[in-house]
């Protein structure tokens, strides 16, 4: 997709200045193309205008968009102050939906930094707000975040309970992509508990959904998960096949490190298979 020339057909005020709403839209277009530096320029320009005209809601939105760009670039130290400032504004103006969304984003960042207590606190607050205002998709997001924290801390029973509740909501609201992610989480928990039949059932369903809707990133992770299940059971040939498929799928989306990891594991299992055949 080619970004349209922003000088053509843009919304311009009487002084020849682009509207902040247009700048936000242009920034979001660049985000979708992973062009984060250009997106950041547009969001910063919009932020300056919103501050000048004392539009607090617009200011909070621009701060949120800037924070997301930094989060996507793993620049957590830059993102957190921006999220925090936006959170203050949304709290002041009484917008609970946006407050919950920012709490969730902050929780995601603390989770990625292994700051699990902070993440749990923020996910829980977001969950409460989304429950109160009847946002079921948001509630599922918060449950999924909490499940991830418990997964990362090897608290399998707690994670399974949360993933299961998330999965039920995703199914009821017709969120196929979210459903595949919930299924992956459940499958991984059952694999780690050595309940392999359950793990294969959930991984297989997640693979079917991911393939059907074209979510290549999730498909790659599911293939690697299936490979792990077969590896754990010494099903070497099946493990090698799935690792190779995962590596190829990761390559398709430019995830070179993930592709290398899957290829390396395929090679390791292949050596084990040769040793077994030679014995």
Could you describe the 3D structure shown?
With 279 residues, the protein is mainly alpha-helical. The chain folds into three domains: 1-94, Tetratricopeptide repeat domain (Serine Threonine Protein Phosphatase 5, Tetratricopeptide repeat, Alpha Horseshoe); 95-156, Tetratricopeptide repeat domain (Serine Threonine Protein Phosphatase 5, Tetratricopeptide repeat), CATH 1.25.40.10; 205-279. It has 13 helices and no strands. Helix 12 (236-252) packs antiparallel against helix 13 (256-278). The longest helix has 23 residues, at 256-278. The chain is globular and about 75 Å long. Mean pLDDT is 93; it is low at 1-15. TPR repeats lie at residues 20-53, 60-93, 180-213. Keywords: TPR repeat.
Model regions low in confidence, pLDDT < 50 over at least 5 residues = 1-15
Order of helices and strands: HHHHHHHHHHHHH
User: Measured on Cα atoms, how large is the radius of gyration?
Assistant: 22 Å
**Overall shape:** globular
Given helix and strand content, the structural type is mainly alpha
Tally of DSSP β-strands:
0
Secondary structure: helix percent:
over 70%
Proportion of β residues?
Answer: under 5%
User: Largest beta sheet, briefly?
Assistant: none
Estimate nothing, just give the exact number of structural domains: 3
At the fold tier of CATH, the topology name of the largest domain is Serine Threonine Protein Phosphatase 5, Tetratricopeptide repeat
CATH class descriptor of the largest domain: Mainly Alpha
Query: How far is the first residue's CA from the last residue's CA?
Result: 56 Å
CATH architecture of the largest domain: Alpha Horseshoe
| Fourth CATH level, the homologous superfamily of the largest domain | Tetratricopeptide repeat domain
Overall pLDDT metric: 93
Number of alpha- plus pi-helical segments: 13
């Amino acid at each position: 997709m080619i970004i349209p020339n922003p000088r053509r057909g843009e919304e311009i005020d009487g002084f020849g200045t682009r509207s902040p709403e247009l700048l936000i839209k242009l920034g979001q277009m660049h985000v979708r193309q992973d062009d984060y530096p250009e997106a950041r320029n547009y969001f910063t320009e919009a932020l300056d205008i919103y501050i000048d005209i004392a539009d607090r809601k617009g200011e909070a939105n621009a701060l949120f968009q800037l924070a997301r760009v930094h989060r996507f670039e793993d620049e957590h130290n830059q993102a957190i102050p921006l999220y925090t400032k936006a959170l203050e504004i949304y709290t002041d103006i009484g917008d609970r939906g946006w407050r919950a969304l920012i709490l969730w984003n902050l929780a995601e960042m603390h989770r990625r930094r292994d700051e699990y207590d902070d993440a749990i606190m923020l996910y829980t607050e977001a969950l409460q707000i989304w429950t109160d205002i009847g946002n079921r998709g948001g509630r599922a997001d918060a449950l999924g975040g909490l499940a991830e924290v418990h997964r990362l801390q090897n608290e399998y029973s707690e994670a399974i309970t949360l993933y299961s509740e998330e999965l039920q909501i995703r199914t009821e609201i017709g969120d196929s992509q979210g459903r595949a992610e919930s299924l992956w989480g459940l499958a991984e928990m059952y694999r780690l508990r050595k309940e392999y039949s359950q793990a294969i059932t959930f991984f297989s369903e997640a693979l079917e959904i991911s393939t059907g809707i074209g979510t290549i990133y999730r498909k790659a992770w599911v293939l690697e998960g299936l490979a792990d299940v077969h590896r754990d059971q010494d099903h070497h040939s099946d493990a090698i096949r799935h690792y190779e498929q995962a590596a190829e799928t990761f390559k398709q989306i430019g995830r070179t490190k993930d592709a290398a990891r899957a290829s390396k594991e395929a090679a390791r299992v292949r050596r084990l298979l040769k040793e077994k055949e030679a014995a």
